[in-house]
Specification:
The complex is a heterodimer of chains A (about 300) and B (about 250).
Chain A lengths: L5 H19 L3 H24 L8 H17 L5 H23 L4 H21 L9 E2 L5 H4 L2 H20 L2 H12 L1 H5 L4 H27 L1 E2 L7 H13 L5 H17 L5 H16 L3 H17 L1
Antiparallel strand pairs in A: 1-2
Helix pairs in contact in A: 1-2, 1-7, 2-7, 2-10, 2-11, 2-12, 3-4, 3-5, 3-10, 4-10, 7-10, 8-10, 11-12, 11-13, 11-14, 12-14
Chain B lengths: L2 H4 L6 E12 L2 E12 L3 E5 L6 H8 L7 E6 L2 E2 L5 H6 L2 E3 L12 H9 L6 H14 L15 H14 L4 E5 L7 H18 L2 E5 L3 H7 L2 E6 L2 E6 L1 H6 L1 H8 L4
Parallel strand pairs in B: 3-8, 3-9, 6-7, 7-8
Antiparallel strand pairs in B: 1-2, 1-4, 4-5, 9-10
Classes of the chains: A mainly alpha (about 300), B alpha/beta (about 250).
Chain lengths: ~300, ~250
Amino acid sequence: MWNRSPGLWICVALAVGAVIFALLATNPYNTSLVVWILTNAVLASALRFVLQIGELNIATAAFFGIGAYATSITAVFLGWPFWLTLLLAPIVAGAFSALFGWVTLRTKGPYFLLISFAVTEVIRLIYTQTNAIGGNSGLIGMFPPMAIDAYYPALAVALLAATLFVLYGVERSDLGRLFKAIENNDAIPRSVGLNVIYLKVLCVVIASAAVGLAGGVHAYANNVIAPSDFTYFVAILALAYVKIGGEGHPFGPVLGATVLTLVGQWVAGISAWENIFYGAVIVVTLLVFPGGLVGLAARARGLVTRGAR
Amino acid sequence: MSAAASTPAGGEVILRAEKLERRFGGLTAVSDFSFELREGEILGLIGPNGAGKSTTFNLISGFIRPSSGRLFLKGRDITGASAKKISRLGLVRTFQHDSLLSEMSVADNILIGTYHQRLAHDKRMEKVREVASMTGLADHLETIAGNLPHGLQRMLSIAIALAAEPQILCLDEPLTGLQGAEVGAALDLFERLRTKHGLTILLVEHNMRAVMRACDRVIVLNYGRLLAEGPPEAVSRDETVIEAYLGRGR
């Protein structure tokens, strides 16, 4: 997989570059922006990961929140060590998603989408109604240990980038091939002795553990979390990253998250127009280059090689 | 003595259905249907459209559960067992429609069939190549399955099933849309699978000439019930069967 793919080495170089940037940049705005880009890249990649089995999982947002809350609760109230609270984020998110998937993945398409949407909103409402975990105002005071504090953005970027590589590795493995087979025609894997429900749950658990870790990382990066950070809209934005970057390639969501997060810093100034802007970008992308930026790049490369011949 | 009776068929009973019944709401798709499949034979399952052939396939492969009746595979009660379990016990079916992974390569299609077995990657690929060469797909491993010519697509659906190493292969209309020479090649493959690989084959097929040539025995379904059973020649002369297919001559 490594020797055949120069693109993968470029991605490794990009990831190392991002870590070094987060380590050296002195402006805290810039370092937190890099962490935020990588967080969005994980959200988008996890959303696309479940799209492999053909399902649009809005609950990606919910498991991001569950990871963030798992880390924050154990850090703030229980005072557990930093690494343990961070490790708990993917485990708790993964465990919840296993239960969620086992019940809901018997449905497909619009049914699954609506259930995943409802679950996301119900979990958010539970946060707002539970005063013990801060209710509407959420939790504050998640700080990395003093010894790590200065390097935390670099650590966050490294963890998130590693998560992206793990998702990529699974997609390229036998397991990834099975996910695609389920999306293509799930009767075939069923007919040759495979447990399709189990595989679908596994797909959701892997993606949810990834966003759970991103949630834990986010909690320490932001020092404060609130229920409003984990609405269904997180998944909608992730979908925008996937569509604009390009769904057909694992690098698509990373590219989409990077471009749109950077652009988002600019459109944040136009307040009410922000969501209209995102909506317009999605519509234009789907109309003009449905393969996203990655698809556009592939097409451009095709034109160049044809021109060279 | 018929030609069928002289072929090396009729070993132990490997699959037995007892009074199988399946209702869909008010419709009874299969009813009081008992039959036996014997090790090493090629059994034809025929009947007019809507006779319950596909329902029977779904029942014996665990894709749907019978409303009543029992199923035994190698003496083991598999009534209500999952498709996964039945397939792992050695009964693998193909599909009449959507019988492959159209967006994936031929090699990946066949690979899917190997995943229930714990194998090293090299062994898997060896299996893929072996099955591909048996089914005439060796030169198309990298082709996207949906782009294969129709005849090879039918072969690929059989190849996926073969990669799962079945003892019983249930083929749902594998010859539909094949050209004359392709039908001959497919029938040769079935015969080879039986003699060289010891497979037992249950064949649902509309091509009567092929059924007559390939099968040792034939069972006929009509309106979800067993209408006739016997060697192909006898069944093809059976008046109730002719009537079911052509209607009563008046």
